[in-house]
Amino acid sequence: MEKDIIVFFEKDRFAHYVGIELIKVEPGFAVTQLKLSDRHLNGLGIVQGGAIYTLADFAFAAATNSGGLATVGINCSITYFSSPKGSIITAQAKETSSEKRICGCDVEVLDEDGKLIAKFSGTGYRINKTIDYKTGTVE
User: Fold this and answer.
1) 111 in helix, strand or coil?
2) pLDDT for the residue 13
3) What is the pLDDT of the chain when averaged over all its residues?
4) What domain count does the chain have?
């Protein structure tokens, strides 16, 4: 089942475009990773906050949709603590609540040394559709 979910999320064109990879997913949990390059840097030469946010948001999406209920974000916030060290950043998302319509999810973004560089909190709304990961369809 995990492989089917990963294949489904490969259709996320923006995450693919910036280089994000879904490493692990299970109900209510996901790990995403981004190999940093020059294209992820801002004018100051440090990792652009939007790249970090997108990594966390993709982990949030995978974790909250992993149970098969189509979920969209309705409120998200991120706090940045430091610039990442190394060439890889990882986001670990865990659902903190999972109700019929509303869910909550916390995401920690870590650098290559395991240092916390950002914390993301998201609220999701479960739309009236389900995801069939075997066929890749949303109904």
Assistant:
1) coil
2) 92
3) 96
4) 1
Name the token pair of 100.
């019929």
CB 111 within 8 A of CB 95: no
Give exposure, 11-39, as e/b (b: 16+ Cβ within 10 Å): eeeebeebbbbbeebeebbbbbbbebeee
Strand residues in 1-139 grouped as ranges (E): 20-26, 29-35, 69-80, 88-98, 102-110, 116-132, 137-138
- Chain mean position to CA 127: 19
Residue 87 pLDDT: 97
For the cut 90, the answer to whether the pLDDT of residue 71 exceeds it is yes
**Category of 63 on φ-ψ map: left (φ > 0), alpha (ψ -120 to 50) or beta:** alpha
Mean pLDDT of 41-54: 96
What's the domain range around 28? 2-138
d(CA 56, CA 78): 9
Specify the pLDDT at position 59: 98
